[in-house]
Structure formats: C-alpha cells, structure tokens
Write a structure and sequence with these properties.
The complex is a heterodimer.
Chain A lengths: L1 H4 L5 H10 L9 E4 L2 H12 L7 E2 L4 E3 L5 E4 L2 H10 L2 E6 L2 E2 L5 E2 L2 E2 L7 E2 L6 H7 L2 E5 L34 E3 L2 E4 L8 E5 L5 H6 L19 H11 L5 H4 L3
Parallel strand pairs in A: 1-5, 5-10, 10-11
Antiparallel strand pairs in A: 2-3, 3-4, 6-7, 8-9, 11-12, 12-13
Chain B lengths: L4 E2 L1 H6 L6 E4 L9 H9 L5 E5 L3 H8 L3 E6 L11 H8 L4 E4 L2 H12 L4 E4 L7 H4 L4 E4 L7 E6 L3 E11 L5 E2 L8 H6 L1 E11 L2 H7 L14 E4 L17 H9 L2 H8 L4 H10 L5
Parallel strand pairs in B: 1-12, 2-3, 2-9, 3-4, 4-5, 9-11, 11-12
Antiparallel strand pairs in B: 6-8, 7-8, 9-10
Helix pairs in contact in B: 3-4
The chains are: A alpha/beta, B alpha/beta.
Chain lengths: ~240, ~280
C-alpha cells in the first residue's frame, strides 16, 4: 500500500495515463479496453476529458462509471457495433511488428504451434472496422518482433485495399507510447515513460526502431487524475499487478 | 403439440460419428456441459465442432473426439488459455478452421438464412486467409467495388445449447444478460437439443421474465433435456456463476486423471462429486 500514499507517480500510473489518452477526443463511442491498465485508463478518460465515452461492465451491460446501467450490449450487438465503427478497442498483443500486425493466436508454425494462445478472436474484424490500439505490459524482443507468427490484427503493410476504416492510433507499453504516423506507417516512439532511455527501448525491440535522443517524456497524471486512479477507480492497486515498476 | 422432453443419453444416441456439431454459449459461459459430458460417455468421435470455444472444446479435444474444429478462440475466460485444448493443438491432434468472431457469427446467420455465404468486412489482410485457403472473396456489384470475405454458411447437423428455462415443447428462455448465439445455433442446425436448468409449464415462462427472454423457438428444437446445474462448471447467470475453484482444478489436473475422477460415472455421479467437494485442494 506504500505506493498509494507516496506522492511519487508509478510507472503503472504513467501507463494508465498513456492508455487513457488513446480515447481523448473520441466522442460518443464505445471504449473497449482489454487488460487491467487499459480498463483503468478508459474509466479515467470517461471521468475526465472524454465524458461521452460508452463503457461496458465486461459483460453485456453498458454502464456509467458508478455502475448504473444505461444500455444493453450482448456479444451479437457488440460485433455489429464494431462494423459500425463507433468503437475504439485497445487489445493485447503477444507479438506486434513494426507495421502494427498483431498476434494473439499462436507462437510458431500455425499448423502445429509451439505454443497455442487464444486464437484470432475479433482482431481481424476490429482492425478493418474501428480504431484498434494495443497495450503490451512487458515491452520485450519477444513481443516487439520482426515478423509476427500469425497476423490476427492487420497492420499497415497487410491491409491493402481494405484500408477504408483501418487505423492503429497507438501502442502503449510499459516503456512508452508509439504510433505509426510515419511516411511508410512504420512504428515510431511518441514518448517514453520517465526513467526509460532510448537505448533501453531499442534493446527491448527486435525490429529496428528509430528512437530520437530528444523523444519527449510521457505526460504525468494531474493531481486530480492521480486521485481518481488511486482512490476512485483502482483503490486496490490492481495496476501494480500488470506493471510492477 | 409434441412433448420433446428427453434425456442427455437419448440425445447422444441420436448423434453419429463424423457429424458437424454446434455448441452454444461463449468461452466458459453457459455451455451445455451436461450434454457434452453425455457425449464423452459415448463412443461418438470424428466430430466437426463449431463453437465459441470453452471447456466444451477442451474436453472433447482432450478425449480425441474432434476431427476438425471451427472457432475464433478457445478460452476459460478467467483462465485465458484452455490447457487441454492447448495440449491437443500442440501435439497436432486436430484440424482447425480458425476464423474471426464476426466471421463465425455471419457464418451462423448465413446457415440460419439458408444462404451459401454472407459478405463480411473481416479476414482480409489477416492470416485467417492464409490458414483457410478455401475461403473465397466477393466483390461488391455496386459502385464502391469493395472486396469482402464470402463467409460460408456454418450449417450444422446438430446443435447443443443450454438455457435457464424451457417448456416441454422446446421454447427456451435465457434469464442472464447475454443470449450469446444459442438461437442462431438452433436455426443453423438440422436438429437442435436444448438442455435447461428447469422445465416449466409454458405459462410459467412469462411469469418469471418478459417475452423477449424467450430466445429459442420450439420449431427449431428437436429435444429438451432438464439438466439442473447442467452448465457446470461454466456460468449460467442468474442461476449460478462460474465455479472458479472447480474450473481451476479442471485446468490444473491431467486430463486422464480428471476424466477418471469425474466423467467415468453418469451425470448424477458427476454432480455428487462436485457437491461433495472432495476435489478441493
């Protein structure tokens, strides 16, 4: 509980802010966070700078931050909502490459995988229809790979003529924030969390990532945001389970 | 009006080797586990299983009953990776048609609507196309000219689903927050078997809940089975939640040992073993 009373902002709290920022200015869309820190981030965005966001309870009910039900969204409607585009999902990724191809299906040869993971889930439909961001709690060469073993979420180099509604607004990891706003849509760092050096990020990334020495620091939470994270949204400090630093 | 009540073992006696079987629910939620357990007690094998996969897939795969699986994922929800399915995949034990969640849904819709396919904006650009070379695309005949995946109908020989209540005629009612796709599974199938927590008189159904909770219509249903706690250990809200402790035991026990302890006897023996709690660590 020490971190709760400490004035010092933890890495996990920087990650919450970096995730929350993904939904800034999104308007009246469904925020679909997957993972603990994205969920805290989505609720923080909803409580502060993106009050029009819709959130679910993780099941079939749309809820206000206080838990009050405001709508019904069973899986069949959720999948239909995806194709309508009024949603911004933040998915996990067991692997991601420089163009934002994402893998959550399996490691190794798909025919007979070394390690079977979840399966493609909704990554193909998500990436072709609504903005899809990613959250990777442990930035490593195993996660940031040269080439993913199975393209589940479609990256910029694979999307081709299906790019009409394709967009990967950001990738958040425990080291920093990344996007694809480059001429060839390859990944670039937007900001690094405090204490993270450009060398650190380059070493933890298996593909060549250009990290300028003057890359900005991720923004800290405001005092009010910190209060909301620590006292209202995540008093149990579950965020430290995902990012321990 | 015909009384369609039957037993899980009678349902299984109507299934055959090599059938395409749809299984309702989602992940580790409202799975027709009593019917799956009955299937495991039989010798039926060589199945094509169509499922938003949970322990139904894990158990049937572990028991070697699945020739081919059609799925977007297999998960236990609170335990993300289904260990018995994982093991089956990693030893190359089954053929897989891995498709996206929405493609799967539209495949059921196509089957229910007697269409050969439906166009979907999903799959293109992903390796779903690489690992399913049989998938075809279709180009819009209108001015936009966009190319879509022509998701083939997922037609089923039989569907197995579990709901909260049903009447003897096959009208099925869900009382939880999500219908999942159980009605679609029944509509996409030549025969459909509905297990339920409790069979009630038709008039009772709408005393408990509004008419829109009547998810499954009797003209799509072949047989009704009363199976209390029949979704165990998956959730069946609001009747009961997922049995997390039991699911954990299932996930951490070698398949042969789990099967010997819980599946060698009949459903009554299974439910007694669950109640006695001797499996608890």
């Amino acid at each position: 509980m020490e971190a709760m009373t400490s004035a010092e902002v933890t890495r996990a709290e920087y990650c919450v802010i970096a995730c929350a920022e993904a939904w800034r200015g999104n308007g009246e869309v469904l925020a679909s966070p997957m993972g603990l820190i994205p969920s805290i981030g989505a609720r923080l965005a909803r409580l502060t700078f993106s009050p029009d966001l819709l959130l679910t309870d993780g099941e079939a009910t749309l809820v206000r931050p206080d838990g009050t039900a405001e709508g019904w969204l069973p899986y069949r409607q959720h999948l239909a909502l995806v194709t309508g585009g009024r949603r911004h999902v933040m998915m996990g990724a067991s692997q991601i490459d420089r163009y934002g191809n994402q893998n959550i299906s399996c490691i190794g040869d798909w025919e007979r995988p070394k390690r079977q993971l979840l399966g493609v889930r909704g990554a193909p439909v998500n990436t072709l229809n609504n903005p899809t961001s990613y959250w990777i709690p442990r930035h490593s060469r195993r996660a940031f790979v040269e080439k993913v073993d199975m393209v589940c979420g479609v990256g910029y180099d694979h999307v081709g003529a299906a790019a009409r509604y394709h967009r990967i607004p950001r990738v958040v990891s425990d080291l920093g924030v990344f996007d694809f706003d480059t001429p060839d849509h390859s990944m670039r760092p937007v900001s690094l969390h405090p204490g993270v050096t450009p060398d650190h990020v380059r070493e933890a990334t298996a593909f060549e990532l250009t990290v300028p020495d003057d890359v900005p620091q991720s923004r800290p939470p405001t005092a009010e945001e910190l209060r909301l994270i620590r006292e209202v949204i995540d008093p149990g400090n579950t965020r430290a389970r995902e990012v321990a630093v | 009006m015909s009384d369609k009540t039957t037993t899980a073992d009678e349902v299984v006696s109507r299934l055959r080797d090599g059938m395409t079987l749809g299984i309702g629910g989602w992940g580790s939620r409202r799975k027709p586990m009593a019917l799956v357990r009955a299937l495991l007690r039989s010798d039926i094998t060589d199945l094509t299983v169509v499922s938003y996969g949970g322990p139904d897939v894990g158990m049937l795969a572990a028991a070697g009953r699945i020739r081919k699986l059609v799925t977007p994922f297999v998960t236990l929800d609170s335990i993300p990776l289904e260990p018995h399915y994982r093991a089956a995949r990693e030893r190359g034990a089954l053929e897989l048609m891995e498709i996206d969640e929405a493609m799967f849904m539209w495949g059921l819709h196509a089957a229910a609507n007697r269409l050969p396919f439906l166009p979907v904006r999903a799959g293109i650009g992903s390796d779903v196309m690489r690992v399913n070379p049989g998938l075809r695309t279709v180009t819009s005949p209108y001015d936009d000219g966009e190319t879509f995946v022509a998701m083939p109908a997922l037609r089923l020989d039989a569907a197995l689903v579990h709901v909260n209540r049903a009447d003897r005629l096959g009208n099925g009612q869900y009382l939880g927050p999500d219908p999942y796709f159980d009605d679609l599974f029944c509509e996409a199938a030549d025969t459909a078997y509905v297990s339920c927590e409790r069979i009630v008189d038709t008039a009772e159904l709408t005393k408990e809940a509004p008419p829109q909770s009547l998810l499954i219509k009797r003209h799509t249903v072949t047989g009704v089975v009363e199976a209390p706690n029949g979704a165990h250990f998956t959730s069946c809200a609001p009747d009961y939640g997922r049995d997390e402790a039991f699911q954990k035991a299932y996930a951490s026990t070698a398949w042969a040992e789990f099967a010997a302890r819980f599946l060698d006897g009949d459903e009554q023996a299974y439910q007694s073993a669950v109640r006695e709690g001797t499996w608890k660590p």
